[in-house]
Amino acid sequence: MTEQPLPHGTTSGTPTSSAAGTRLDPWLGAYADRTHGMRSSEIRALFAVASRPEVVSLAGGMPFLDGLPLEVLSDVASRVVAQRGLQALQYGSGQGDETLREQILDVMALEGITAHPDDIVVTTGSQQALDLVTRVFINPGDVVVAEAPSYVGALGVFRAYQADVVHVEIDAHGLVPEALETTLAGLAAAGRRVKFLYTVPNFHNPAGVSLSLERRPRILEIAQRYGVLVLEDNPYGLLGFDREPWPALRSYDEDGVIYLGSFSKTFAPGYRVGWAVAPHAVREKLVLASESAILCPSNASQIAISTYLSTCDWRGQIKAYREMYRERRDAMIAALGEHLPDATWNVPDGGFYTWVRLPDGLDARDMLPRAITARVAYVSGTAFYYDGSGGDHMRLSFCYPTPERIREGVRRLAGVVDGEREL
Ligand code: PMP
Known about the structure:
Belongs to the class-I pyridoxal-phosphate-dependent aminotransferase family. About 40% of the residues lie in helices and about 15% in strands.
């Protein structure tokens, strides 16, 4: 008997797994080359399992929103429609709402940035800004210099545009100027043009460190000398636990820095509003790129954020977040000291993350399935390196679970580490 051809996505009698579905993909030969580098981030892949209630997730970077004044925000949301519905529900400017752009100036003033509303492009989260900047600057094979480790979501964008990422060492004070100099000199000698330097100078994701005040002008001087644009990604800068924000790189240099900001961590990610501040000519290209991608950012979201900023105590909310995250950081650090004395970690003074070096010989990626079985999740260090190295580290987030859950999560993790040694 001859086999009948099967409909896509099935094998005889049994539904196929998605892997088998991929094998049967009739469009396999049709995809653009850039899709070859696209893959699910290690965090996305973990998301479903880490969200199960029995798992303590030290994996995601989700802000803890329970402290938001939801009655007040529901009033804000209903006013958006009742009072400005026809604008909120309509298409808007590709560059973003002008009132919101003016208010963003007040937010950035906290980090010493002076700008004009025209310098700002509102985006769908800073993730879209990362995509726009990369789209505007990167041809396949172009070099992006980035910290080692770097934010996994930025690496995903660079991969999607087929950039070649060259990592530069960071230490407890952020990007190491001497290492940057050596890397840029080496690339120049090899005739390779660096399109930009991607950096998260404050409360780094995943490393938790900040670029010291002393190093900020030095990094900019080196970038300038090699003609390299700086992409400053700063979603966490206002979330310091024990100090006021440090001046942004953009506050030192308006011509050589593109600054990215976001309301995701200082307010909430659900409205998906972020922004880019760029030198004039770059800004025009970013607006064109954004218009071709999304026409315009959501008016409803922008007006909601704008109303929040003008009618609510947003500075007080940031202060509340800082205190809450400090308490969680303290719980995480105390638990690490108690349960994982053979590992090493930094004590972040802001943001969401601790970067943990495992005891020698252990590999965070290999260990992850056993951690999930033990009902604790983290992100393997391999997610944060372009070449998949970094398995000797893991990123632990303290932003979302309560202090009690953090302690329980680290206790479970210690059990997994002990078990690993016995394997
Ligand atoms: N940059 C960094 C360093 C981040 O950690 C994140 C979110 N985790 C983003 C950008 C993207 O944030 P959003 O799109 O929500 O503004």
